[in-house]
Amino acid sequence: MAKQNTAVKNKSISYxxxxxxxxxxxxxxxxxxxxxxxxxTVYNSFFEYYRDGLTxxxxxxxxxxxxxxxxxxxxxxxxxxxxYLGNTVWLWLLGAVxxxxxxxxxxxxxxxxxxxxxxxxxxxxxxxxxxxxxxxxFAMLFFSLFSQVGPVNQFxxxxxxxxxxxxxxxxQVTVQTLIALxxxxxxxxxxxxxxxxxxxxxxxxxxESARLDGSTSTQxxxxxxxxxxxxxxxxxxxxxxxxGIQMFDVPQVLTNGKGIxxxxxxxxxxxxxxxxxxxxxxxxxxxxxVLLFIVTAILSIFVFRTIRADNK
Amino acid sequence: MKKLLTVLLAVLMVMAxxxxxxxxxxxxxxxxxxxxAAEGSVLNIWTWNTEFWEFLGEYxxxxxxxxxxxxxxxxxIKRTTYPSDGGAYQDALDAALLNQANAAADEKxxxxxxxxxxxxxxxxxxxxxxxxxxxxxDFSNTYKYTVEAASDANxxxxxxxxxxxxxxxxxxxxxxxxVLGTDDPAEVQAAIDSWEKFDAVAAQAxxxxxxxxxxxxxxxxxxSNNTTSPWVKxxxxxxxxxxxxxxxQSANYAENGYTAYTSNLWGDEATSEMxxxxxxxxxxGPAWYFNFCMGNAQDAEKGCFGDWAICQGPQxxxxxxxxxxxxxxxxxxxxxxxxxxxxxxxxEVCSKLVSEKMQFSNNQKVNNKFAADASYxxxxxxxxxxxxxxxxxAKNIKFQNVTAYDQLxxxxxxxxxxxxxxxxxxxxTAINNFKDYIRTTYPSVTVE
Amino acid sequence: xxxxxxKTAEIKLLISRIVVYAILIFLSFLCLFFFYxxxxxxxxxxxxxxxxxxxxxxxxxxxxxxxAWHDGDINIPVGMKNSFIVAMCSALLTTYFSAMTAYxxxxxxxxxxxxxxxxxxxxxxxxSQVSAVGFIxxxxxxxxxxxxxxxxxxxxxxxxxxxxMRQYLQATLPIDMVEAARIDGSSEFKIFNQIVxxxxxxxxxxxxxxxxxxxxxxYFMPALxxxxxxxxxxxxxxxxxxxxxxxxxxxxxxxxxxxxxILPVMIIYIILSKSIIKGVTSGSVKx
Lengths: 312, 448, 287
Prior knowledge:
The complex is a heterotrimer. By secondary structure, chain A is mostly helical.
């Protein structure tokens, strides 16, 4: 290893410029299509800039006015962005808690030599499958299946479980449960596979010595598996959280963008999307984006730390 | 090194562009020689549904090429459609009209359709043209309100409607018989000619195990059409007393079980009530409703064709209407004018709209001919002469208190109020949520 | 005594196995059930759908297929073509250029290399939505809405794919091999294209699949950029189904459209599920 490294160092001097050539397409594209729009987004957040029918209003510099408006309570008495941030976190948690619990459980099942589960490939294929489904399509499917005249209600009524159809798509409890269920189904397989890999990465001798010491499987889990799995667990957890902050397709399509009922399923990105609707309100949308950036930046620092700790 | 990079990027660009260009629809046929007065070879029509497009294919075009393309002489007619819901159509149309000057001739919007809910936004802008200047001059047979609706603040006419849309109560004959003991339109009308009577019949229907209306949204247009003030007044959001009255009625109907659903008018829940198995007595709609929305009622297996009739109901109102507006910058003015004239002044086409498509045309002469024809009857309505009913109702239509913001105000109020009807929020919260929606959607409207 | 203890242990193991399999079967059922319902419903007519619930396919499959394919509001054939172009081009560009960038920071020692690597890791987590406002503003300004390439080109800069490729290179590519090729007189690009890329084939294949799927399913940005009917991608069309004014509701057709939207990805998955699942783990975290 040491020999290789010195070899690279010796040769690399004359080849260094090739390094730049190889990375330059990435950076050109990044600068034009991501960085510049990002800067423009921030810039916009200080301007009044929207469309009123066929008239374009602005751009006019307004300082921090958009941010002020963003943090003002609406007619309903709350500050929309806070409520939607809260919704987003809550909806994510509703899906993520069972997702991680069940994924952890399945990962232990699959890696247990004692249980020696057969057909692992099949089960893994099936539980990972929903992850590849188009989220907007998944939501549309649930909308159709759970409508008052949809198959789920038809089944419940004809089997005598209920007498009148349940308004699944009109009630807070059911809408939030459906969103959480979809997120759970889409992600628990993925998480299972990642945690499994983590457990398999733990040195087998650690388990063996513990067993020889007479530890119970619960003790093994809490004293060995969990501590050693922690970095990976945190990494998967925080990436899931960052994904959760961006939740959009499922609630957007399921509630037709209205976050019904009572805006309890309106997420941060849905709010952003509302500003980008008919009035193309770049100013306010810019302010929402900046807030989104700050929230994810804070979370990213945690991820960054775990990656670095892990890379050592 | 630089060279290599340039080559690389160039290859990349070409690759990507090639990939995408192959996606373009077949290029429009090159203009063969000099077409009529060197006008464009492609006429672009913007719509939010396919209703008018189907009539255009059947009664105007020479050839239906596919779902999106028609041919008339040398000209290819192309359709661009967006869903109306949530303002998607308006949004896309606004963007296209703002870009009209820069668009290639064959990409320009030539003719676009607009609804009463937002037509004023376009008539009061430079994006639409005076149709008299392109040769649409004869409005002697059209209904007056359809011309007023398409005129700007100075009275310049910017478009025409191919339909006139007085709206009525569409009731199930068999259910009316059971509830009121009669299915005769005059007698049913006498029983429901005011809101008090309408509500009383609703209670009667409930007792017999029926619903008065399929969804609370069904009566929304009747109220919203009889407002005394607009949605936006002096730049401020304003909820009219008639809208409040609709909310009261809806609350009452939802609470007492007079309505089958509280959900969206167009959803499969509300329309499922149109099957023979449905328990709803009254639906609300104009002539276009029969064909466009009552597919379930016409279903061969599960429908109830012929078990229907219409009467005015509690208040006169209109609903919808599809106006054709001429877009400034069109390169097909002659054909645009020709299409407009065909659908308002060609008596043969207007007659077919009535007799073959159950429409109520925008040609009084044609409508009156059918209305006076004792042998004419609409089989879907059990032989009732609906044109005669609509001709009477058309006299009472008022086009008033309109703003450019009506579509999303109407849609939004119904969506947010439904949450109150479903018992999820209290009434004030529902209205406040609606206000916040308008605040987010229209920065130019002040919400208090 | 001893055999008794053994027996209890055996019974215990048997019971826990039964419980575990029951849990696995239940979760598998949950994953498949809704899609099974969708498939069944896509074989039923609107009237059949309104009349009750069933788990048995009915006879309306081809009629629904025809209606979905020829729908006047939703041009699904064009949508699938557009989605395919975007997904395929993105998958090719993203894997090629990510591999190239990863190779650049792995093999070469240049000034700022550490910074570059850390920078790409740092931007990995920034949601694409943060650039959305500026992006669509520019798209409208330069009249680039409804251009599919605008959705394709940005995929060249894909931090997550870079990260994966970089990990893979670290694990599989000995620097000696590059040195040897240099001694043979190969140019740097030749080495990358003819020696390194073949080594990276497994990683490229996996990332191509993930990139294809992500792009096929992408809804947020395309919905803001594409609004011409002949440029729309599948997710946008599926979302319009939810629009309230999608009247003349034929639920059989609606289910069929949903089947069509996810079918291509499902076919890929059925064929390649093993390597896809392997791919989930190998790059995302260092085990």
